[in-house]
Amino acid sequence: MDKKEIIEKIKAKKAFISDMDGVLYHGNRLLPGVPEFVEWLKREGKKFLFLTNSSERTPRELKDKMHRLGIDVDENVFYTSALATANFLAWQKPGGTAFVIGEAGLIHALYSAGYSVNNVNPDYVVIGETRSYNFEKIEQAVNLVLKGARLIGTNPDVTGPAESGIVPATRALVAPVELATSRTAYYVGKPNPLMMRIALRKLGCNREDTIIIGDRMDTDIIAGIESEIETLLVLSGITDLKTAGKFPYRPSFILEGVSELVS
Q1: Annotation says 123 is catalytic
Q2: pTM, whole model, 2 decimals?
Q3: What string of DSSP letters covers 152-214?
Q4: Which of 2, 21, 64, 220 is catalytic?
Q5: Which end of the chain, N or C, is more open, meaning fewer C-beta atoms within 10 Å of its C-beta?
Q6: pLDDT, tens digit, for every residue of 11-39?
């Protein structure tokens, strides 16, 4: 299959689930072809969802960020690991309580799902990305888990990109609690197929009509494979062809970036 056929096959899909950092932007810099790609999605009446493992920001904050970068979309097109975690907990134990180590995006998602914050006897200890991480919070989390609270991580990312380089992500922040309690957290975000199934329900599409676009083999691409959704690896983020070749699985398609879909 030549590149033209690949592009036409991708463009024939009815629904698009796209990662954000590395696909749409790097930090505060929009990637080439993204405005044209988003306009094409709107013009063609495609269903689309911008999916991120980050739990820090609310959909409103993500909408505002995209607006600052020159892209105008509704906030309901954003879906985060914080929202997926809140949905999962509301399904597991409606109206429960949680001790939270995380930012506004996670706290807001839990409140919206009917959860309240409790640091005495919560049902869950929930950890996501945060810059307000300290020993006192780790100590609280450890003792609450030992007393019976179940340990949840919003996503299994060990590191994440930042303009200054690499920063510890959720799994790195959860690790001290896991080690101190000998308990293993349940991680909700990509590549957990649960997040993909929720995304498909939000789109109202089946997996055959959907494609996942991402720049990471270990989250985006494996999430699609495990959910039986076709995948497009773009080389505009952290993965190059050499890195992709080291994994025992392959994406359905590979392009330089979303710009190739609209060039």
Answers
A1: no
A2: 0.91
A3: EES---SEEEETTEEEE-HHHHHHHHHHHHT-PPEE-STT-HHHHHHHHHHHT--GGGEEEEE
A4: 21
A5: N
A6: 999 999 999 989 999 888 899 999 999 99
Return the pLDDT at 179.
98
> Are both 179 and 225 inside the same structural domain?
no
Structural domain boundaries, residue 14:
3-53+190-262
Given the residues 2, 19, 157, 215, the one annotated as active site: 19
The type of residue at 249 is Y
CB-based contact 22:248 (threshold 8 Å): no
Instruction: Note the pLDDT tens digit of each residue in 136-166.
Output: 999 999 999 999 999 999 999 998 766 667 7
Q: Round to whole Å and give the CA distance between 164 and 166.
A: 7
Q: Tell me the Cα Rg of the chain.
A: 19
How many domains does the chain divide into?
A: 2
Tokens of 53: 């493992």
Domain harbouring 124, CATH code: 3.40.50.1000
Question: Is 19 annotated as catalytic?
Answer: yes
Assess if residue 211 is contained within a domain: yes
Sign of the torsion formed by the C-alpha atoms of 226, 230, 236 and 239: positive
Strand pairing class (159-162; 165-168): antiparallel
Domain endpoint, select from 159, 187, 215: 187
